[in-house]
């Protein structure tokens, strides 16, 4: 099983590699992610429904992250400091267990941002990008 973005992103592998080995698109999300799978018994996986919702109940800035990328730690610290200085409520949720990963509200590489309950991006935030999101 292999999840990827329909629109090629520099930090995701090219889907043609998996497709050359017989992987097929078996499910998609509205924001361009495809689930590729190679079935040996006719069964196919699918994205969990919570991944397709792309909304959360929490209305404050909410960031789901894991530590797979070397830039995550410094980005989290920058966001924490900015939010503290500017009185912006923020929830930083480290995805560090299988259960947390299964409950994620979107397709997840190692970073996902929500604001006012809505999915915003899977891209790491700089201060300017963060300010743009907070103006919404």
Please, could you describe this protein's structure?
The protein has two domains: 2-47, no CATH class; 51-134, Glutaredoxin (3-Layer(aba) Sandwich), CATH 3.40.30. With 136 residues, the chain is of the alpha+beta class. The protein has helices spanning 15-20, 49-53, 72-85, 98-102, 127-134, and strands at 2-5, 24-28, 33-37, 61-65, 90-94, 111-115, 118-121. The radius of gyration is 16 Å and the shape is elongated. This is YoaP-like domain-containing protein.
Overall, the morphology is elongated
Mean residue pLDDT: 88
CATH topology of the largest domain: Glutaredoxin
Q: Which CATH-level-2 architecture of the largest domain?
A: 3-Layer(aba) Sandwich
Radius of gyration: 16 Å
Which CATH class of the largest domain is shown?
Answer: Alpha Beta
Q: Spell out the helices and strands N to C.
A: EHEEHEHEHEEH
Strand content: 15-25%
Task: Please outline the major beta sheet.
Answer: 4 strands, mixed
* Total domain modules: 2
Total E-strand runs: 7
Helix fraction, binned, reads 25-40%
pLDDT < 50 stretches: none
User: What order do the strands of the largest sheet run in, or round the barrel if closed?
Assistant: 5-4-6-7
Number of helices: 5
Distance between the termini: 36 Å
Protein name: YoaP-like domain-containing protein
Pfam families: YoaP (PF14268)
InterPro entries: YoaP-like_dom (IPR025685)
Organism: termite gut metagenome
